[in-house]
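Action item from last meeting closed. Structure (313 res):
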């Protein structure tokens, strides 16, 4: 599929933006990158990948040459509303902001002018995976999915834009900004990140106390994690459970009973409810603003580093 003469404006050049920019260019779009810092790593990388790089403040001038421009806001979620307010809100032309995550709308930070539209195109994959899937399948669509909410009455250019990233129209899952964000936060806190990093820490500590060789701990905790995820993906949750060994089944059932009787479930539900009622979002923005999040992140990263170093010592 080719989209010559179309332009895409991308704010940011991080994980998603690098993938989007490369896929859109390969699909025939002319891509411009907008950044707040001209001398940072992102600007250097974008130039090294032969993309024209502009300051955010040039957005108005650059998008004014296009009818109904699409601006992909791929900077950190907390920067989306400030960039919009400072560089886009005053533009008296119709335009569409494309968001890769609904957080700025869910947290009520982003409030747009009535002649500006907001679309959701939230890939359910990290940037490098999106790029890899696009490259492997092009010119056909890949198998990845995205949460999808075009603005009411939007023209086909947004569908074309999604297709240029390799998304099959049938793989665009209709979702509101709120339910994409709440679903994303619940899965990452309950399972993908909140669950995994904590359980991995506890499991590695127990294995070290039991004097298991480091090379075996690595295989059990990291290689086999990928294998069980693959099993669930290919067989489904119930069949994957049936496929594990008898000892693994017995251990799963005992551990589940312990989790349930430990008081962990009400704590888990309380965290999930704070995502749904918006209080997690407020705590997150405040912790980011005060620097508390960065401090806690560094402390936990040190802990995880010491776990990882065990594998290489
Ligand atoms: N990462 C994922 O796997 C993933 C998956 C799905 C959706 N998303 C969503 O995709 C969006 C981008 O996330 P990401 O993880 O790709 O970001 P990221 O890797 O953290 O990169 C952020 C980029 O934004 C730039 N930036 C920071 N402040 C900016 C500003 N004020 N104006 C312009 N650019 C600015 C940074 O440049 P500097 O280096 O100069 O600071 C960097 O290039 C978010 O909405 C996120 O929720 C991410």
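Sequence:
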């Amino acid at each position: 599929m080719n989209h010559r003469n179309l332009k895409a404006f991308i704010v940011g050049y991080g994980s998603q933006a690098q993938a989007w920019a490369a896929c859109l260019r390969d699909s025939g779009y002319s891509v411009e990158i907008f950044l707040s810092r001209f001398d940072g790593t992102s600007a250097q990388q974008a130039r090294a990948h032969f993309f024209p790089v502009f300051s955010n403040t040039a957005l108005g001038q650059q998008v004014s040459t296009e009818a109904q421009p699409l601006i992909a806001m791929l900077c950190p979620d907390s920067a989306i509303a400030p960039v919009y307010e400072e560089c886009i809100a005053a533009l008296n032309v119709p335009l569409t902001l494309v968001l890769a995550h609904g957080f700025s709308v869910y947290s009520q930070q982003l409030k747009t002018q009535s002649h500006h539209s907001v679309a959701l195109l939230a890939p359910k994959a990290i940037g490098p995976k999106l790029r890899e899937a696009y490259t492997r399948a092009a010119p056909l669509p890949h198998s990845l999915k995205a949460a999808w909410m075009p603005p009411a009455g939007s023209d086909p250019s947004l569908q074309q834009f999604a297709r240029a990233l390799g998304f099959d129209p049938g793989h665009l899952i209709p979702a509101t900004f709120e339910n994409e964000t709440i679903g994303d936060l619940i899965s990452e806190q309950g399972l993908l990140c909140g669950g995994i990093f904590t359980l991995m820490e506890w499991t590695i500590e127990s294995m070290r106390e039991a004097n298991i060789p480091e090379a075996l701990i690595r295989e059990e905790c990291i290689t086999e994690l990928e294998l069980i995820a693959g099993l669930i993906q290919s067989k489904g949750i119930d069949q994957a459970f049936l496929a594990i060994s008898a000892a693994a089944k017995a251990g799963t059932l005992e551990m589940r009973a312990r989790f349930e009787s430990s008081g962990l479930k009400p704590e888990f539900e309380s965290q999930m409810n704070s995502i749904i009622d918006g209080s997690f979002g407020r705590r997150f923005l405040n912790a980011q603003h005060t620097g508390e999040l960065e401090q806690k992140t560094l402390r936990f990263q040190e802990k995880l580093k010491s776990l990882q170093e065990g594998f290489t010592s």
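Note appended to the action item: The radius of gyration is 22 Å.
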